[in-house]
Amino acid sequence: MQTASPAQRKAPRPRADAQRNRERIVAAAREMFVEHGSDVPFDDIARRAGVGNATVYRNFPDRDALVREVVCSVMERTARAAEKALAENGDAFGALEHFVHTAADERISALCPMVSRTFDQHHPDLVAARERIERLVAVLMDRARKAGQLRPDVGVGDLMVAMGQLSRPPAGTPCFRVDRFVHRHLQLFLDGLRAPARSPLPGTAVTLEDLRRA
C-alpha cells in the first residue's frame, strides 16, 4: 500500500472557501493599490474584500507578500491574454494590439512601479512572471514583423516604454478617471508601429537589456 510522501502531507490542497477568500483579497488589493497606492491600510483591503483582518494576515503576513501576489497575478492574466491572442488571432498585428490593450485594462503600468518601492525585484515569482511576458511580447512582435505588418526598427523595449508611459495616469490623477484616454492614445501609438514606416526613428531599437541598464 502506498502512503503519501512527507512533502504531500505538508502541502494539503487549500479548501475552496479559503482559496476564494485569498482571491477576493488579491482582487480588492489590486483595486485599492491602483486607486490609492501600495500604502493603503490592510484594514481597508479587508473591508473591500469582505473578510476579516485576520484572514488577510493569515494569507499575507506582510505588505511585500501581498504586493508581490497582486503584481504577479496581473502579469499572469496578461500573459494568458497574450497566449490566447497568439492562438486565436490570425492577424499578427491584431494579436499584438490585443495584448497591449489587455495589459492596459489590467492597470499593469500603475502596479509595476510598486515593485521597486516595496520588495525585491529579483524575487523568483516576479522574475518568472516578468520573463514569461517578455518572451510572449517578443513572439508577438516577431510574428507581426515577419508578416510585414510591424516596422523593423522597433524592439520589445520600445513597446514596453510606450505602454508604461501611455497607460499610466499623470501624477495625482486616479487611473479610473483617465480610462477613456488610455486606449485612444495606445491606439495612436500602435498605428505608428505599422509598416511601412512613415519616417525613420532616431537611434536604434530599444531592447530589454537597454531598459535594465538605464
TrEMBL record:
SUPFAM superfamilies: Homeodomain-like (SSF46689), Tetracyclin repressor-like, C-terminal domain (SSF48498). Keywords: DNA-binding, Transcription, Transcription regulation. The keyword DNA-binding applies. The keyword Transcription applies. It comes from the Bacteria. GO terms for molecular function: DNA-binding transcription factor activity; transcription cis-regulatory region binding. Residues 1-21 are annotated as: Disordered. Residues 41-60 bind DNA. Residues 19-78 form the HTH tetR-type domain. PANTHER family: HTH-TYPE TRANSCRIPTIONAL REGULATOR BETI, HTH-TYPE TRANSCRIPTIONAL REGULATOR RUTR. This is TetR family transcriptional regulator.
